[in-house]
């Protein structure tokens, strides 16, 4: 299966994008939960009381169901990933990640090793070097006075 096959087979038919939160209808078609349900009360959007593909009526639940972990895992296997940056969370295909990273305005999550003040970080070692040089200078000035 090539990229366009995945795009066609696993993308939401409404927004045409990938999502790990797909809701399967009684007709066996799936649509992402974001397109199907209202954001506030999670009720089915009026325009989607029938399947957007086969037009089957009442194919999807009236309220957003809990998305099974297996559905998320299947979409992950198919190549759907979520941006790891804080305040972004956009879902995309694995082959779109590098391009997304260039334009993403989400905040990069800081790891403990990179966080200032943690052992081994550049700012911590810089601070300790500064302290050591100050100690050396103060000891040398004490030695000169004596």
Automatic annotation (TrEMBL):
Question: PROSITE patterns given for it?
Answer: ZF_RING_1 (PS00518), ZF_RING_2 (PS50089)
Domain RING-type stretches: 12-55
Q: Which InterPro entries match?
A: Znf_RING, Znf_RING/FYVE/PHD, Znf_RING_CS
Q: In the UniProt record, does the keyword Glycosyltransferase occur? A: no
Q: What is this protein called?
A: Interleukin 1 signal transducer
Disordered: annotated span: 115-146
Q: Which UniProt keywords apply?
A: Metal-binding, Zinc, Zinc-finger
Gene Ontology molecular function: any one: zinc ion binding
SMART domains hit by this protein: RING
